């Protein structure tokens, strides 16, 4: 089973690569990520809360980052378990290339799945998967491309007048390489999307 997708982002490839590996940005784009911890060199474990129709589950995943070629591509290999809801094993390749003054992002996720979600109707599953994908890429593009021209939104201000910082001290997964942390989130989401879209 596999899931392919692509999108164009109005930002340079180096900026998109950096954003894909920035835990602060990804944390704002992916709903349901509960935790992520390092378990070795380029290996990590994470927890993602997800809901598809009547099935709600907490997926625990283990991921390894391989075939790094910054800022062009990487491959992630991993597996996730959601208890009685099911499991997913697979890989995801993310490839970036220059396109029309911006960046073309393409991904290919392959997975083997099973469990309770396999019993849901294909329409329900397809709708949920499309929703996850649209939400992620809409938020990610907005983060990378920045606010529209003329949008002079001000950053939030703390009560002492300072602007809040988003650094490793204030983010889940602190102490883990941003490349590893961000890649783990991408794989967890892509694995879930592949699982959902390829059922039925």
UniProtKB/TrEMBL annotation:
Keywords, comma-separated and alphabetical: Membrane, Transmembrane, Transmembrane helix
Matching Pfam families:
COXG
The positions making up the signal sequence are none
Q: Where are the transmembrane segments?
A: 179-198
Q: Which SUPFAM superfamilies match?
A: Bet v1-like
* Gene3D superfamilies hit by this protein: 3.30.530.20
Recorded hits in InterPro entries, A to Z, give: CO_DH_gsu, START-like_dom_sf
Is Transmembrane among this UniProt entry's keywords?
yes
Instruction: Cite the residue spans of the region called Disordered.
Output: 147-170
Protein name per UniProt: Carbon monoxide dehydrogenase subunit G
Q: Which organism is it from?
A: Sandaracinobacteroides saxicola
